[in-house]
């Protein structure tokens, strides 16, 4: 049931964290009089890092990082379709898990606003600009934080400029970016699609489309991913990006061109400089995170089919179907903070009080058994997923994201048509953050081949004919089957990734002084020199 509730006589549910003390320093809670959800023993939860004040589960605890969907399943079993949860620094909120309940919250801006200034804990000072999620909830003059006529004014320029994207230019940018990223890997016969392709190509293409290709570098990429993770460095990453975007807007104001910033400034909506710079950030970061995750997840689906193709045979998905399947199974954003109750409302049997924060659970809603009784069944031609949101604040660039992913997968499969998973799909690892879940690596092997000439760009990667198979027929003699990789090698690869990131930050610090995006926890390790670990342990092991 999802209905407004009169404020008189309304009381919070037992154990609800959203109505706990707003004091910044909370004593260890007394669980003696709080009924435990079925199957939970309060005595065992005192020192559990996944459980916080009010006995709510943390969305940034070890369980969430290890198995995000498993956490959602646990919450659904304990609370139903809406659950009390804790954000970083144990800030209470509600997480909507049900498909119908998510759609209800999205469809009723008169009950749930996107204006973070309505959040009671922001009003009373419990959270503020220094919170790790401040870039997500602090009010900004962008369409995602306003309603009504102001929302229409700010959203219209985005929709118009994203809709008129030249698909020929989009294909050119994808092909050029693919050449830049993959040509040096041709002779190796191995690559990690996550790091070498999926996390880089979308940003290259998006910056090219927006006329800001000169901003692309590793630091920009790292800040873009860090901003939405809810880490202690998220605010510094946000400020680094905003400095760049403000400079872009100033340049566009002085010398207008065909770039995205100039188009927004010239639009009849009359956006000012701050509005344009904030929209550059929200559009670019949201589009990048969405596309990078979607590209990796769709490619994983296609590769896993190859691993079991003897069983699926002619029933393999095509690229379009793989993208839609990924939007259901692994939405690019698994959850999103951004709704605040304007009055007392009952949702999913729980009373959400005026001023409470509400998170939309896209990933949890997509596996709601009321809409997907059989999770293993294909979802062909079914777009009722929540991946791009719903209602007036649905993603304005979803068409662009789908097109970019389809072109990127076309090109990738044209480069390496014999590509296969280098490890069994059961060994693929995931990393969960507060708002998203992504593949740590997606290692593939292929027959080594000569590099391509730059003149060949545009002569390959054409769309496959309708109904054509994506991969060549099985060839047992030359097939590249996955191999079981020792756990020690996978752990070394993770450590090497941390080593590479630390090395990049240190090199940047030598040029610019102390970098604001450095994590405090890395300072001690980096002060002692390079973190230990080989550069590419997984790649070196697979070569053998």
From TrEMBL:
PANTHER family: CYTOCHROME P450 YJIB-RELATED, P450, PUTATIVE (EUROFUNG)-RELATED. Residues 513-533 have a biased composition (Low complexity). This is Cytochrome P450. The keyword Heme applies. Residues 1-16 have a biased composition (Pro residues). The lineage of its organism: Bacteria, Bacillati, Actinomycetota, Actinomycetes, Kitasatosporales. The keyword Lyase does not apply. Residues 492-501 have a biased composition (Basic and acidic residues). Belongs to the cytochrome P450 family.
């Amino acid at each position: 049931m999802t209905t407004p509730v009169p404020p008189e006589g309304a009381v919070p549910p037992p154990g609800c964290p959203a109505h706990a003390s707003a004091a910044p320093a909370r004593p260890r809670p007394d669980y003696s009089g709080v009924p435990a959800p079925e199957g939970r023993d309060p005595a065992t939860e005192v020192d559990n890092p996944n459980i916080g004040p009010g006995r709510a589960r943390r969305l940034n605890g070890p369980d969430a990082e290890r198995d995000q969907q498993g956490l959602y399943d646990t919450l659904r079993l304990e609370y139903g379709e809406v659950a009390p949860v804790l954000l970083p620094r144990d800030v209470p909120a509600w997480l909507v898990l049900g498909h119908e309940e998510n759609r209800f919250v999205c469809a009723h801006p008169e009950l749930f606003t996107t204006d973070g200034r309505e959040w009671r804990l922001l009003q009373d000072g419990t959270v503020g600009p220094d919170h790790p999620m401040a870039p997500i909830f602090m009010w900004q003059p962008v369409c995602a934080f306003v309603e009504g006529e102001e929302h229409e004014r700010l959203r219209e320029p985005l929709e118009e400029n994203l809709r008129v994207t030249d698909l020929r230019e989009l294909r050119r940018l994808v092909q050029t970016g693919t050449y830049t990223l993959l040509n040096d890997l041709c002779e190796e016969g191995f690559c990690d699609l996550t790091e070498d392709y999926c996390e880089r190509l979308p940003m290259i293409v998006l910056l090219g489309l927006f006329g800001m290709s000169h901003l692309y570098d590793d630091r920009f990429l790292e800040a873009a991913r860090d901003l939405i993770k809810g880490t202690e460095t998220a605010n510094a990453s946000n400020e680094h990006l905003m400095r760049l975007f403000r400079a872009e807007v100033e340049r566009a104001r002085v010398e207008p061109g065909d770039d995205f910033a100039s188009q927004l400034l010239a639009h009849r909506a009359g956006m000012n400089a701050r509005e344009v710079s904030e929209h550059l950030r929200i559009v670019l970061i949201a589009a990048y995170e969405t596309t990078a995750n979607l590209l990796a997840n769709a490619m994983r689906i296609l590769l896993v089919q190859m691993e079991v193709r003897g069983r699926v045979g002619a029933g393999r998905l095509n690229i379009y179907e793989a993208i839609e399947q990924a939007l259901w199974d692994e939405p690019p954003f698994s959850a999103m903070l951004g709704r605040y109750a304007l009055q007392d409302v009952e949702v999913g049997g729980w009373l959400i009080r005026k001023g409470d924060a509400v998170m939309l659970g896209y990933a949890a809603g997509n596996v709601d058994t009321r809409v997907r009784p059989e999770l293993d069944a294909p979802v062909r031609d079914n777009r009722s997923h929540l991946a791009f949101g719903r209602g007036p604040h649905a993603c304005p660039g979803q068409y662009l994201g789908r097109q970019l992913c389809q072109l990127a997968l076309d090109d990738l499969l044209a480069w390496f048509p014999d590509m296969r998973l280098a490890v069994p799909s059961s060994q693929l690892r995931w990393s969960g953050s507060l708002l998203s879940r992504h593949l740590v690596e997606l290692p593939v092997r292929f027959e080594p081949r000569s590099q391509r000439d730059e003149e060949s760009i545009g002569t390959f990667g054409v769309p496959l004919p309708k109904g054509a198979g994506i991969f060549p027929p099985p060839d047992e003699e030359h097939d590249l089957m996955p191999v079981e990789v020792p756990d020690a090698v996978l752990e070394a690869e993770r450590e090497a990734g941390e080593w590479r990131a630390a090395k990049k930050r240190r090199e940047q610090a030598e040029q610019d002084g102390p970098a604001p995006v450095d994590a405090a926890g890395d300072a001690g390790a980096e002060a002692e020199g390079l973190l230990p670990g080989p550069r590419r342990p997984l790649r070196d092991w697979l070569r053998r």
